[in-house]
Amino acid sequence: MNDKRPVLIAGGGIGGLALGLTLQQIGVPFLLLEAVRRLEPLGVGINLQPNAVRELFDLGIGAAALDTVGIEAREWALVGKNGSDIHAEPRGREAGYFWPQYAVHRGRLQRLLYETLLARAGPDALRLGQRVTGYTVENDGVSVSIEAADGARTQAEGRLLVGADGIHSAIRAQMHADQPPIHWGGAIMWRGTTQARPLRTGSSFIGLGTMDQRMVIYPITPPDPGTGLAMTNWIAEVTVDPGQGWHGTSWFGTAEASDFVHHFADWRYDWLDVTALIEAADVVYENPMIDRDPVPTWVDGPVALLGDAAHAMYPTGSNGASQAIVDARVLGAALLRHGVSAAALAAYDAQLCGPISEVVLRNRGAGPFGLLGLVDDRCGGAFDDIDAVIPTEERAAFLKGYKEAAGFDVARVNAAAPTIPPGARVS
Q1: What is the number of H-type helices and E-type strands within the chain?
Q2: Would you state the pLDDT for residue 368?
Q3: Taking the model in full, what pTM does it have?
Q4: What's the number of domains the chain is made of?
């Protein structure tokens, strides 16, 4: 390539780092600009679906590396408030995928991607403490405005700009100046991690409760050989009337178990004591379940959106981080086909913007947790025989439809050619 200006990446989250690793792999110069001064392993648990794990494997980040930040998921299960199963199915390789599903600590995964990128691309390819605040499209590229952590303001020039700067993206706000505010439908989430004995298979994702009040529980480490306890991620969720708006002073903050544990005071079963799980937490965070309305395009000439900046979605489908990784790989494949150009961004937009916007709306409608809504509608949430309420075939078809829409149906993932062929480079 004669033009040595880099592709600029705004944001060093999972999507931005996956894009940096992809560009390094295919030989495209880049500069990643991240607002924080230091990437700390913050946060709690997330799931990586097999389609995203496949992409990480193709980036040379295999099981040995992912085992340091999480654990293979073996089962996905919905359980009614009465403690009885609504639906359970295997996940990952036990479901027939060629690649596993992983439950990981989000901050540790981000740190793994960051350290891998630093080792491969060198320190000059990443700058921390640099927030991209806006962009100007020029005839043959793009210029960005940068605000440093110390307040200094600078500019950078690039061939392309990819905004991977999250749900509060400055790039998206400029691209879609008339976008509606962040959408909150009334669900409040308290997230935490607790050292606890793994449930069911030992690596099960469990959704427990009803549409308006539920728990999500899964381990993100193997059990300790000495104690048998694993770091267990949980989300406690309660839906309230959103009419008065979000009551908090910020979109994300710390909380105390005493703030909300009373909602789950009677959730005790012979296999789980929810109150004890919550009260033994190492850390608790509170945030509303929020997303953004889909936009008609993720592209403005040489500028594109990626990850939460493009498609912030409710976490009901456990595929937000997975889609950010897939975004990065699809964008890399478009650069291979069209060169480092606005045409590549347009091809990326044409492939993903419409379908993934539909996933945003599916997740807003409860995603795979919509099964809980069907149970509520048909029997008020109380049942003795779930097959009499929703037959097995109907439950399986419901989930298959979601997987197909979100891009991780087992047949589709296993049959697909690599997004980026081994050894491919932009000429």
Answers
A1: 13, 22
A2: 85
A3: 0.95
A4: 1
